[in-house]
Amino acid sequence: MSEDGPKRTRPFVLITGTPGTGKTSTASLIAERTGMKHVNVGDLIKEHKCHEGRDEDLDTNILDEDKLLDAMEVILDKAAEDGQGIVADFHVCEIFPERWFDLIICLRTSTDVLFDRLTARGYNEKKRSENMEAEIMQVILDEARESYAQEIVHECPSNTVEDMETNVTRVEQWGKQWIKDKDKED
C-alpha cells in the first residue's frame, strides 16, 4: 500500500504462522464474520505467478517477493479506497511493509497436532521436518516481533476448533474497537 494512498477506515490484519497452524481457516472465518476481504497470499502467488523457479527438495515454488508485493499493493490500495478491511494470511510476514497491517496474529500449534496436520497434507519428510523445526524454534513469531511494533503482534494458540473460535472472536472485537478509535480521530 503506497504511503500516500487512500486513508483507511477499516483495519488490515495479517494472520501468520508456520504452515499447518490454521491461518487460512482462521482468516476465512474472520472475513466471513467481519465482512473483511480475505487475501490468501498463497493463492495470490499462484494466480499472479509470483515465483521464480522451484525448490524440488522442499517441493515448493521460490517466491518472487517484488512481484508479490506489487500485486498485493494494488489489492490493498483498492480495499482502502473502497473502505474495506483486509485479512491476509501467509506463512511469511517480514517481507511486508510495516505500514500495511494494523494487527499481526501469529498462530502457534503444538508439535503433535502440527505433525499430524502436515502429514495429512502429504508433506515429504524434509518439508515436514523443516516446518516442525520452525514451529519449535518459533521462527515466524520471532520474525513478526522483529518486523512490526510489539503492540500489534499477538501470539495465539491454534490447536483446536475452540482455539480458532476464540481467535476469530478476539479479532472481531479488536476490529470493532479499531473502527471506533479511528472514527474518534476523524
TrEMBL record:
Cite the InterPro entries for this sequence: Adenyl_kinase_AK6, P-loop_NTPase
Q: What is its EC number?
A: 2.7.4.3
An example of a Gene Ontology BP annotation on this entry? ribosomal small subunit biogenesis
Q: Where is this region: NMPbind?
A: 40-63
Q: Which residues form a coiled coil?
A: none
Localisation per UniProt entry: Cytoplasm; Nucleus
Per its UniProt entry, which superkingdom is the organism in?
Answer: Eukaryota
Residues annotated as signal peptide: none
**Which parts of this chain are annotated as the region LID?**
120-130
* Residues that, per the record, bind ATP: G20, G22, K23, T24, S25, R121
- GO molecular function, a single term: ATP hydrolysis activity
**Which terms are listed as keywords in the entry?**
ATP-binding, Cytoplasm, Hydrolase, Kinase, Nucleotide-binding, Nucleus, Ribosome biogenesis, rRNA processing, Transferase
Top-level class of the enzyme under EC nomenclature: transferase
GO CC annotations, alphabetized:
cytoplasm; nucleus
Q: Which reaction does it catalyse?
A: ATP + H2O = ADP + phosphate + H(+); AMP + ATP = 2 ADP
How does this protein assemble? Interacts with small ribosomal subunit protein uS11. Not a structural component of 43S pre-ribosomes, but transiently interacts with them by binding to uS11.
The task this protein performs is described as: Broad-specificity nucleoside monophosphate (NMP) kinase that catalyzes the reversible transfer of the terminal phosphate group between nucleoside triphosphates and monophosphates. Has also ATPase activity. Involved in the late cytoplasmic maturation steps of the 40S ribosomal particles, specifically 18S rRNA maturation. While NMP activity is not required for ribosome maturation, ATPase activity is. Associates transiently with small ribosomal subunit protein uS11. ATP hydrolysis breaks the interaction with uS11.
Name the family: Belongs to the adenylate kinase family. AK6 subfamily.
What protein name applies here? Adenylate kinase isoenzyme 6 homolog
Which organism was this protein described from?
Answer: Fragilariopsis cylindrus CCMP1102
